[in-house]
């Protein structure tokens, strides 16, 4: 008898969270979420990312039980939960405003979800102590939320969501109220807790850098539709459409007409007559419009003739010192906001506004997408 391969085992593995053709409308006419499908493995960290009103928070609220799908179903560990009330789902939840009880101490806040589950007193004390240690607040159990900083309150909110050891934790823009440094610190804090516990997490944010830092996979939403679901690296390096390319990271874009097309290369004519060779990713065909996507760090300034397949004239608009790198804005082929990022290394050449130079890039770094 043949031994099943790792691929066979993976294919037979049951998804921990399933959104199956889920739709949601509030007025019976316009869909806020349109045919959302997601299969999530146990222990994954998945982020729902998108602009305001794109449907990501509605999906989280349906998972939590605070909203009911108009169509489709949601399964948790193989069990349909669409009609199950929130308190019976056993899901931890972290809100943007922390939602801590102001009249309770930190320890009492953490004990509350255990007490409503009728956990015995000695176990409550042990679990609260463990949760405080997990978020490095061992000596803050007797304080009230008002006596804590924003970052400390957020740690308590995370600990409360984890204290009863749920298999799934939902987080709705939990770091939105924190300043930049604290937000970045908490990103790593939450990621480390996830790695340590192996708990499944679904995280909602509109902050792309936050999503890239923390996630195993990211679902990029726009207008109620998932535009792409992939790893952070795949979303940044290989966006499948123009929206994802522009929403994830900084991006230089041109729109032109496809003149030639093969499996390996598309030749696109820009409105000013310049020809650009690009990797065909999502192109309708010859004669169609295409959006070209190019990351700022993939551009070479003043390349040697013949070293880059694409070389275009450029005029410097401004050079901004960013510490570890220089951010230079050019006018290139009608795009006055063409950005190039170069490392701030010793001896790096700094251009001045008005300088006329050239910029170049490889075919594989420029993606031709549907306009």
Could you characterize the architecture of this molecule?
Helix content is 24%, strand content 34%. The protein is an alpha+beta fold. The chain has 2 domains: 14-237, Rossmann fold; 250-370, Nucleic acid-binding proteins (OB fold (Dihydrolipoamide Acetyltransferase, E2P)), CATH 2.40.50.140. Strand 7, helix 6 (180-197) and strand 8 (200-205) form a beta-alpha-beta unit. Helix 3 (106-115) packs across helix 4 (121-134), helix 3 (106-115) packs parallel to helix 5 (150-162) and helix 5 (150-162) packs parallel to helix 6 (180-197). It is globular and about 75 Å long. The termini are far apart.
What is this structure, in a nutshell?
With 371 residues, the chain is an alpha+beta fold.
For this structure, the CATH topology of the largest domain is Rossmann fold
Strand order of the largest sheet: 6-7-8-3-9-10
| Proportion in helices | 10-25%
Order of helices and strands: HEEEHEEEHHHEHEHEEHHEEEEEEEEEE
How many domains make up the 3D coordinates?
2
Structural class: alpha+beta
Q: What is Rg? A: 25 Å
CATH uppermost class of the largest domain:
Alpha Beta
Query: What percentage of the residues does DSSP assign to strands (E)?
Result: 25-35%
Distance between the termini: 52 Å
Specify the CATH homologous superfamily of the largest domain. Answer: P-loop containing nucleotide triphosphate hydrolases
